[in-house]
Amino acid sequence: MTDHNDDLKPLAIEGKLPLKAVGIENLREAHPTNMPPHRYLHRWFARRPTPVARLATLASVLPKDTETDELLELMQFGPKEGVDKPLDKYIEEKKATEDDRSGTLSDHYGYPRPFKLSPPTERLDEFHNTLRSHWNGEIPSVIDPTAGGGVIPYESVRYRLPTYANELNSVPSLILKSILYYAPTVGDITPELENWASKINERAKDNLSQYFPSGNGRDQPDNYVCTYSITCSSCGRQIPLVPKWRVRTRTGAETVIVHPSFSEDGSLEFACWINPTDEELGDFDPTDGPVSRGGDAECLNCGVVSEADEIKQRIADGDYRDEIYCVRTHDSDGSFGFRAPNEDDYASMEAATDKVSSSFELSSLLSADIPEGQKTSEPLGWGLEQWRDMFTDRQLVSHYEFLDAVNHFKSDIYEKHDEEEAEAILSLITLTAGKLVDYNSRLSGWDTVQGFPNPLSKDKNYAFKRIYPDNNLTTGGLSFLSQLDRVSESYAHIVEYLPEDAEPASVTNQDAASLPYEDDSLQAAIIDPPYYSSVMYAELSDVYYAWMKEYLKDTFPELFGPETTNKSNEAVANSSRFEDVAGEVSKKQLARDFYEEKMDDIFSELSRIVEPGGAMTVMFTHKETDAWDTLTMSLINSGFTITSTHPITSEMPQRAGMRSSASADTTLLLTGRKPHEERDPENAVPTLWSDVEADTREAAKDAARDLLKSGISLTKTDVIISAFGPTLRVFADAYPVVDDQDEEVPPRKALETAREAVTQILVDEYLEGMDVDTLDDITEWYILCWLVHEAETFSYDDGRQLGLGIGVDIDEIKRSTKTWRKSRGDISLRGHDGRVQNINEKPEDRSSRLPVDPGDLSFPRSLDAVHAAMHVYDKRGETETIEWLRERNFDSDSQFKSTLKALLQVLPHNHEDWELARDLAVGRTSDVLDLNFNPNVFAEDGDETKQSTLGEH
């Protein structure tokens, strides 16, 4: 800590924290069907787990001398009695023995997950007395200026801290009002909600019954599984745009397959097969639909192929028809089934179209244009130009009838309840409507494993879906009543978890860079800032906003007055906003500059309102160096002094849907303090980078070594990210930093140095007896990518940074070496089969597009040689491979052997290249190569597709 901070009273977050125990509780919380209740009110795109939010909040206000057990007990970790060891050790032991338990996880640990627990009143009183002693008689206030789904401020309210929550976006602002204001003031309103929901549902159900006919009066259509069909330009038959004919393949449930055919008059028909046998399937392959991976579609009748670009244009022009190809039904006894569509299903779909065209309200509903943006470019390209276009006619009618029913009863709701209770009822009903939109749109998708709709928001984009659900909102698991029950139950739990005398938070909806608070008026800021460029919050929430506005524009005109959500003040690096102004400066750079300036303004605003001696803790979960670079500069510019950093496992490692995203699995808590004396940056003496570089490298290495010893379960990427914190603290203390030409050095230089230093630590730890520096640069880069990322696909920026550290420009080598390819903006590493020409073809017939010719006697890179050897072994077998190896002297080539040995240690065991590398390293070829291995290299790792995480070593 620098001299001007010596008068700051140290906080718990600046000391040793029970990071492993908190990480364990974060993972315990991540159960997809039983998460904290606020997650079920409405989908939001980024929420931290309760334990890390609770730790960040409490440790940012408690004094440094708070004992670990005291902190964990206050956080509601551990049993109330019967523990004869430190709580963090108890929790770590319980984690280590999870697989040997006989009961539930709660039984095994001896206490529920902490999100279900709040301290009793007497314990909160003790907590407040401790705070008053530290904060000069005051209970410190907590502000979250970018509150999102509200995890941080909700935890603050649970500990009876004066709480302030701000959010720019209106959709999460409605969530915040519900959990931070209505929950502590209005309380549980379950009976009232159920009463009005029943009336709303009854009215909407009467109006929707004709659009969801039940032919036998018993099995009600629950979900129509739909696709698009276009007319074949050759034979005139319909081509359904279905990639596969599977509807459900879940283990333990009936398998559902659709079989297409043409009737005598040439019309397209579908049969629904339940648990078909191989004999019944015959030559029919349910995995082979008309649509190929590239988007082309082959006619089922004549075989003529319509190309992807043509199909997209025809759909954009409206030259298609909506096709029902399966129906999921819901029986009165609660069971579900599947059947083929019938004439009544299609007639009801046409009836909905007639309704839309004949109704003035429906013809103008959601007719605002979809604005151009980074995420909206895809639906716009498919011809979805207005928000209404994201819905079929029947989906539009379904959502409208519930909106109309709510509006019908709105005046009655206000008449029978006081204003705040009426607003709470309408808010929770509107959140329910948003959940219905999530699963009932053209972009919602169909889960062919579960046989159930997927949410529109699943992949955080507006990707076009060839298969989509058309849901009956009056029955089944995605009905209005079932979703409202979930919202009502969640809200009741939110109320239940609050202490009896909890005070509501102050909730504002405005720019976080301009907050309505006095200078030096608050004590602590806890912020989980927007994630640079990985999530376009405003763009993605607009479809929900469009419907919420229809429900609440007269109730909350300040929230739902504008046409769409606020994007001009949103703190994200959205390059699409600069499409028309980019010139000499790229739109990506302009977006980065905007994000940095915005974060500067937000942190500076927090510096204004936090009192001298107060703290700001930033929870940052990101991989990209650009994001860390801008964050660090923003922190430095705001005047806060970095005093501590802590890494915590915050998400399930390699979680579904995020494997290749920019979000890491670790949250870094980075704390800054507001000094009593402001720095004078203009008169600060610059520090030479050459004087800082060694300290930067050593800080990164020390952090990596400590993490490797700690037992915290982190991926190797997360070890690098976790080392960024101590690195940035060194850099910030030395700021401003200049090179020997007196040019300012940005934080990214320190981060690049940290990445190089930690990568070397990882090499030493995991590549037994290897010195990768002796390999050629491209082979070294390829091996390091596998080592660090433990997957073939990862962030482009991560791969580029690894390359820069060893002198490889990955863009320059992409075409000539074909070691990698672009995959949705990420890097995807190629194996031997994507690089080596076919040795079984004549030399003149081999593809020149592949850079490695296995017939060559020498190779420019050892990776090429090993990949060629794998290919020869695969195509020609062991005997010819032995001759091939000896002919090229690979039996005495140390680089060839080192590369093969490294690949065996970094490739996942179910990768084809690992299996071929293993075959080369054992058997008769091993006698030629004479390699020595630790037996663990060949140990089975089950069906895992990644290397072990560090906590498993």
Description:
This protein is α+β, with helices and mostly antiparallel strands. The protein has four domains: 3-187 and 492-681, Rossmann fold, CATH 3.40.50.150; 217-341, no CATH class; 682-766, no CATH class; 775-952, no CATH class. 42% of the residues lie in helices and 12% in strands. The longest helix is centred in the middle third of the chain and has 24 residues, at 393-416. Mean pLDDT is 90; it is low at 652-664 and 941-953.
What's the short version?
The chain is 42% helix and 12% strand.
How many beta-strand runs? 24
What is the CATH domain class of the largest domain?
Answer: Alpha Beta
Secondary-structure class = alpha+beta
By CATH, the architecture of the largest domain is named 3-Layer(aba) Sandwich
N- and C-termini, Cα separation? 34 Å
Please report which band the strand proportion falls in: under 5%, 5-15%, 15-25%, 25-35%, 35-45% or over 45%. 5-15%
DSSP summary: helix tally: 31
Largest pleated sheet: 7 strands, mixed
Poorly predicted regions are 652-664, 941-953
Q: In total, how many domains does the architecture comprise?
A: 4
- Rounded radius of gyration (Å): 30 Å
- What is the residue-mean pLDDT, rounded to a whole number? 90
Envelope shape: globular
- Helical residues, percent: 40-55%
Strand order of the largest sheet: 15-2-1-16-17-19-18
CATH superfamily of the largest domain: Vaccinia Virus protein VP39
What is the CATH topology assignment of the largest domain? Rossmann fold
